[in-house]
Amino acid sequence: MIALTKFNGLDALVSLLYPPVCTICGANIRTGEYLCDECERKAVRIVAPFCQKCTEPFEGAITSTFTCANCAHRAIHFDAAVAAYRGRGIV
What is the pTM of this model? Predict the structure, then answer.
């Protein structure tokens, strides 16, 4: 319990010295968040269907997991990449 109290105190000190800000626009945000509410609304989330290797989103009635043509015949040296948002627009 003492260690937890010290950690919370340290976390509060770090937040005081380096207040949490949105990684896109720099607006003040709550501790533990990465985007402000406005930027999160503007960011386009990736939803299924998407490639199980690179998370590239696809449209259509794809109901099972799949690997896209870009990843299918490449020697990829990782199991999967995960992205929450599309790398276009605000992100």
Answer: 0.58
